[in-house]
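G.,

No rush on this.
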Amino acid sequence: MKTLTLAKILYKNKSIKERFGIHRGLTDNVYKQNSLESIKAAIDLNPPFVEFDVMLVDNEVKTGHPPQQPLDEFERVLYLFKRKKTYPKIDIKLTKNKHCFTLIDKVIGVINQTSIKFILVNIGGYGTRMQFMKAEKYFDKKVRDNHRIRLNIDLARYRNPEEDIDKGIRKHVERLKNIIYSISPEIHEENFKIIAEFAEKHRIEIVCFWLRGWPDVSNPRVAGEIIRNALALEKNYPIKIYFDINPWHVDGLPL
């Protein structure tokens, strides 16, 4: 069954529609991931959010996840979310640290020209722990007084999953707490209890699990039982669980 057809079926289920964003748009035989067409098709299903990647190419912001070829102009893609309940989750892909502030400035500049009510930004790509933290602190200075724009943090960028969440990470998160909306653990790599306790301690109400995919994993899959275990965290912690995981990558749906 083609992805587009399967997605339309899955998003008729209320629990999926309310919990699962769509990652990199709706790909099919026609659409490329992160393309304007794939993102538009995803928005049409009215998920809570649609995630897509952006990078800096010839001083312009284009959609695409390196090493994917750059695709569409960021401005055109962001315009798709105008007057929609679905919000954009923009993953800024850093490639060369010397350009990271330029990319962040350009992304924020485009966002500020829109009337979209809520926009979530994640800073990812390639870099060291110090480079990611530096980029997030710079982002904080730029958007601190703009309540429409918030930050998602993937804690795995600062450490290997086997390592503790150390004092340096906690201090960094405390510094950014006024702009952090959510944290995103990789669903196979992080300890659910540790992540939930971290979110509770730092008063972060949203935990949004993601699933490692291309270019690292060619056929990403997650068991429905793992999804249900993640949702069960809500019984013991003051958090809300979402998934930045395409539901057609989950075995054993609907929930």
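When you get to it, here's the other one too:
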Amino acid sequence: MDGIYQFGISLIQGLQTMSPALDGFMEAVTFLGTIEFYILFIPALYWSVNQSLGLRVLFILILTDVPGSAFKQLLHEPRPYWIGSVKAMGDEPSYGIPSTHASNTLAVWGLLAYTMKKSWMWTLSIVLILLIGLSRLYLGVHFPQDVLGGWLLGLIMLLLFLKYEGRFLAWWAQKTAGTQILLGFLSSAAVILIGMLVLALISGSPDPAEWAAFSTEAREIEHYITLSGFLFGAVAGTTWMGTYARFKMDGSALQKTGRYILGMIGLFAIYLGLDILFALFAPDASLAGYILRYVRYALVSIWAVFGAPWVFIKIGLAERG
């Protein structure tokens, strides 16, 4: 692996000769692959553009991020700035391969392009996939193999999603609302169990002393709990929305803008408010803290998928579908 690492470091050093001229641009591009960006983007798509597509993007993002996080820990490979003479333009506590920026971007934008079937969307998606991958190299936080591995994982998840989505939804539609919510909870619990299993498998393989100081937070369970909360909230929210708050996409530009502004106010009130409130009751790295984390992210997802549309209908920002 030393030769592969050195090749990657040399490539990154070459890219970084364009620093600081491209720093701001690359940081902006890499933001488009973050969870924070998707928190801003997916609600806009779901509330104001295409309800069905918004839900599909939400689920493929979660389903892609779970194996991405698991493989990061199973492989526990370093990031470039942990071991080489490259400029670190980001603080990344997780392991390197695969790049979840790359995997999530390919899965999400691949789904958007495939669904919309517009040449401009294919062009935009390809450009974003390539630029976000390149930005991870430029910023010194990923090796080329990390990005390639992320693209491979994203492509596999996209193909699996497209192949099995139809038959899964047909099977899912036969379940009662209570069964759907129970299955959502069990699926979210499975995400946490995956994380626990992965951490158990690597517990006997410590990181090399040369870069162990950079990976002190890389073997934590918190991200699985975040994903599991999001997953349960998305499933429960979708079930309740379909029963109580199905809404139409039409409406004036003012109504659609109002949906987004009001929805995001509620989302951030829950996201930030519960973060402050729950911190008063338990530290993050405790059983109570883990439970509260799960509740927090589940409520964020439930608000986005069900709560906000219910409010939109009640106050006239959307018509019942």
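The radius of gyration is 20 Å. The first helix runs from residue 2 to 15.

Enjoy the weekend,
O.
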